[in-house]
Amino acid sequence: MSSADTLQAFKRDGRVVIVGASLAGLRAAEALRAEGFTGSLTMIGDEVGEPYDRPPLSKQVLTGWVPAGGTTLPRRRDIDAEWLLGVPADGLDLATNRVHLADGREVPFDRVLISTGVRARPWFVESEADLDGVFVVRTREHADGLQRALAAGPSRVLVIGAGFTGSEIASICRERDIPVTVAELAPAPLVGALGAMIGQVASDMQRAHGVDLRCGVKVTHLEGDAQGHFRRAHFSDGSTVDADVAVVALGGIRNTDWLRDSGLAAGVWGIACDTGCRALTLNGLITDDIFVAGDVARCPNPIYEYRLISLEHWANAVEQAEVAAHNMVSAQADRWPHLSIPTFWSIQFGVNIKSVGVPTFADEVVVTQGSVPDHRFVAAYGYQGRVTAAVSFNNAKWLDHYRQLIETAAPFPPACPTPDAPADAKPVPVDFPGPTLLAQGATVVVTGHDPSERRVTAAWQHR
Length: 463
Hints:
Structural class: alpha/beta
Domain FAD/NAD(P)-binding: 15-321
Enzyme class: oxidoreductase
Cofactor: FAD
Strand content: 25-35%
Pfam family, one: Pyr_redox_2
GO molecular function: oxidoreductase activity
Number of strands: 30
Shape: globular
Helix content: 10-25%
């Protein structure tokens, strides 16, 4: 049988298993059917309900604009799949091509897509995390519970962590006229994602809107009352804050634990893959039948020196899922690379923040347009003399221009395309925090180097 015949037989009768029934998994399933795959399709997910959209959870759901149950993802087409929901995968056997489930079942496959995503990083003391009034925000059940707690009118909310999620939650609290304290170990909010200069802008925004912002300190202890309700937080500087609600917003943990013995290059930063979304083994070999998409993927990008990059971005999950699905059912010569430039957005304190590129892949930053005091500007990021990213505050219409600069490796600092360039703008060091803080605040993490380097380490931490 020729390779073309084999491929057609797989498209007609093959078995595809998708582990991770969220955005990337659903979009991949739809793309497989659109590509003409008529074989069996199995969707495995650890949550009980249908796939839903996560960005609205820290935005529209917490404001009460959208109910948590209203975030279900729309179906673009019927995927005719077997749904195995409410039970997580706990093993992958590459020798027998089987996914092991936590309830003891085994699901055979010819090709598998791993899109298990990220879970919220919990508070480090379990008894304190279990206090009534202590929340994380990752699932719609989390968001629904926190929305009801905010609607009850707490005397104060404590937000632990000032990344994008924590900052958005603080913004919603102030919109609802709820007193809020934000605790951040780094020198400023958003510093892990956008650097020190933008972090200072974010600090000014929060304090201008009445946030009790405390940076450079750590929450050491959450105290409850006799009824088991959260009442007070203790800080590393000896101070305390009384509050009724605490939101732990310390980033996410990539769901790779179940792959511990699989032989894949999977660890705390995700699963290494090539630009075609094919997973790599610990020895650096590309697998032919194991694909990766979404937040859990570590994918090289030629624009960023082929370094492995992990992205927690909505658009990236969709694009990667479509590339993976296409490559699953295509001949080698027809496969696509995933080479898109990352984009991200956030709304907080009345400001629309958007980015293009990878701000964490930079050594300098400069304001190229607009006014920082007015919170209406564009900042460009550069690495060794070329443009690598841009971030806009209430000024997103020029981001396509900066995307072109990134794609063409334009010189940094770039010429301003409009007359509103600040007269005294000069590049400054981008000044990101160390790896520990960076992991908690960033939605884009540059985690590796050229894949030709033979340095693969599987590091597992007890949590």
